[in-house]
Amino acid sequence: MLDNGRKNIGVFVFQAIDHFQQKLCEGVEDRCHELGYNTIVFSSFGNFADNEPFAKGEEIILEIPNYDGLDGVILALDTFDIVKMRYVILEKLEKEYHGPIVSVRTEADNADYNMLLDDYKTMDGIIRHFIEDHGYRDICFMTGMHGNPDAERRLDNYKEVMKEYGFPVDESMYMYADFWKWKGKEACDYFIDQRGKLPEAILCANDYMGISVCHELQGRGIRVPEDVAVCGCDGVWATTVCAPPLTTAKVDFHKMGVTAVDAICGGVTEKNTYFSPDNILRESCGCTRQNQWEELRGRKNFYNLYEQERSGNLETTIRSIDLESINTFRELRYLVGGYLPYIHGCQQFDICLQGQVRKNKKGVPYGEPMSDMMEMVVGADDRRKINKSIRFERKYILPKEMVDSEPMILYVVPFHFKERNLGYTVAQMRHGHGGGYSSVYQEWTVTLENAVQDLFNRDKMDQMIDRLTMLSIHDPMTGVYNRFGFEQEGRRLYYKAREDGKNVFFLSIDLDGLKRINDHWGHGEGDQAICAVTACLKKVNKRKAVISRMGGDEFSVVGTCKDREELDRFIKDFKEHLAKEDAKHEYTIYASVGECMLEPNSDKSWEACILESDNLMYKRKRSSR
């Protein structure tokens, strides 16, 4: 793994833009920094925008690490929204890794340690607070996805507490949602419209659902908490600035990350460590206003995030326009370097492509293994200047030139275009950046993926155009120029020679007896005879004259010579080589040649020179019959 003489702790977590993931990573980073360890977070954006080709491309994240080079592994399996990858990572660790494994929030059989929430009790205190301190009886519950362990346990906790107090619960009083922000309307429709009355309270199994319910209720003119009380769970910072501030059960995920590292180091003896939440009582349940310091801190966090997102999104838009015009990776390096200050906490950003990708101009197909050799094509660093691509072995994650001696914090994410894998990116973060990454970083990375693919597409288009151009001016059978190529390249040579004051010669050549060869020996032999003439011309072409097949059995040559003697020697050598070819065949291979030499002080035109050599060639052809 990272070759700086330090231990490497690998964290596997999806969607590190969310509260839990950020706080967990922050705790891991802080503890690793204290111990002098490297933190390497292997993160996927997951099923971003519910796009199947994109999700397939994200699966390559588990092919990137050299598992045997890790000294400890921390898993956040419940963040893997591409569910099959939970099983893939466990299989890989079993086969390729031999160190300690810590699973966070999910009890994993093959983990050495589990950092767990007691989800049967996580919301216990909040539920009892609503009943005992506020006297609520008609309480509805909004949980996460059906079958999700956290969602089911929190729902069971609600049912058990309600039963303990003798309050009946029927199916109209709870619903499954998504642990996210988009089900607030559906929840209000379910709990209010279908039941035909307002519940006294709606408890939500996480904060994002709680905030969305508050917004929906207020949009309907229903006051929180005067008409309906609401709470969440987890304690994300947004609960301090939403209106009203949200009552929640706050879990110290930072401490969970710290303890996970301690477990790897042998500082934890029990296999399962449980973390209990603290109840944070605020206005959404009917309690008094939160303390002023917490409110101010929440507003400050909100403002900072707003500014980062606003400036970052604007800069992403501007840079996206710039990316459309790049033609080389050198230009891409410069552009990425200029964007680095807008990625919060990032001091180094590298794009590492699979070894064959840059040559083939396309990503590796879905399902094919990751190459062992990588090429860092972009190395943007606010401390060092990297103006070249560097090849290195994937097992080291980065080239040695990009590795610091101090403990490093790296975020490694897949780099792909749809399901075709290009490689990965590495962001080195400053210690204290807050853990995880921002949505701006995520959007920027996806924008870069599209830009690199566009760059490859432009390269391939340019190659195709070059190829078509070559085909349009070359004779496909002989490989020399055709009539169009003669006009283009021949005239270029002609005008350049005239500018330089050099002698220019023209040759008109006609293969004699081609029709007879075709009629008696076949067109294949006729083609061989044409190619023989071409080969002889190439052998005597010492001064890079322009040779062309004008069509059928006719050839033209334009070039420079010192004097008439050199021109005559060119023609003589050509005929001698042609005689050798003639001796190899049953039929006669002979060519009539006409020439014209143009001296620097002559005012004869291109057309006149060609006409003169043509006329001389036909005159000699007639005299030889």
Task: Describe the secondary structure blueprint for this structure.
Blueprint: E1 8-14, H1 19-35, E2 38-44, H2 52-58, E3 72-75, H3 84-96, E4 101-104, E5 113-117, H4 124-132, E6 139-143, H5 149-164, E7 174-176, H6 184-193, E8 201-204, H7 207-219, E9 229-231, E10 248-250, H8 253-264, E11 272-275, E12 278-280, H9 292-323, H10 329-339, E13 346-354, H11 357-360, E14 373-381, E15 390-393, E16 409-417, E17 420-429, H12 439-473, H13 483-500, E18 503-512, H14 514-521, H15 523-540, E19 546-551, E20 554-561, H16 564-582, E21 590-598, H17 606-623
Parallel strand pairs: 1-2, 1-3, 2-16, 3-4, 4-5, 5-11, 6-7, 6-8, 8-9
Antiparallel strand pairs: 10-12, 13-14, 13-17, 14-15, 16-17, 18-20, 18-21, 19-20
Tags for this model:
single chain, 625 residues, 4-stranded parallel beta sheet, 21 strands, elongated
Structure write-up:
The protein has helices at residues 19-35, 52-58, 84-96, 124-132, 149-164, 184-193, 207-219, 253-264, 292-323, 329-339, 357-360, 439-473, 483-500, 514-521, 523-540, 564-582, 606-623, and strands at 8-14, 38-44, 72-75, 101-104, 113-117, 139-143, 174-176, 201-204, 229-231, 248-250, 272-275, 278-280, 346-354, 373-381, 390-393, 409-417, 420-429, 503-512, 546-551, 554-561, 590-598. With 625 residues, it is α/β, with parallel strands linked by helices. The strands form 4 sheets. An 11-stranded mixed beta sheet has the order 11-5-4-3-1-2-16-17-13-14-15. A 4-stranded parallel beta sheet has the order 7-6-8-9, with helices on both faces. It has a 4-stranded antiparallel beta sheet with strand order 19-20-18-21. Strand 14 (373-381) and strand 15 (390-393) form a beta hairpin. Helix 6 crosses helix 7 (207-219) and helix 15 (523-540) runs antiparallel to helix 16 (564-582). It is elongated.
